[in-house]
Amino acid sequence: MAEASCDSLQQLVVWYEEELMRIRSETQRETLEDVRTEIKRSPNRMRVFVIGVLAGLLAGVLLTIKLYKQ
To answer: Membrane-crossing residues (predicted)?
Structure first.
């Protein structure tokens, strides 16, 4: 903890200490919110797999149709 001999310096020290505590608590709160957001947005692996398979099948069918028309 810092100390000052002049009243104005002491007021500045108190202000900076309060500001530091405020910024630390804000940062901690934002970090917790970011962690919660990341947990909510985890991808569903089965859904991604099914979408990938369907997209592959659709691409295969479209390419097959295009090649046989030529």
So the answer is: 48-68
Residue 67 in tokens: 């090649």
Residue type, 5: S
> What amino acid occupies position 68?
Y
Give the dihedral sign, CA 21/26/27/29.
positive
Which pTM was predicted?
A: 0.42
User: How far is the C-alpha of 12 from the C-alpha of 69, rounded, in Å?
Assistant: 81
Task: Pinpoint the alpha helices (H) of 1-70.
Answer: 7-40, 45-69
- In this structure, what token pair is assigned to residue 61? 């069918």
Count Cβ neighbours within 10 Å for each residue of 32-48 and write b for 16 or more, e otherwise. Answer: eeeeeeeeeeeeeeeee
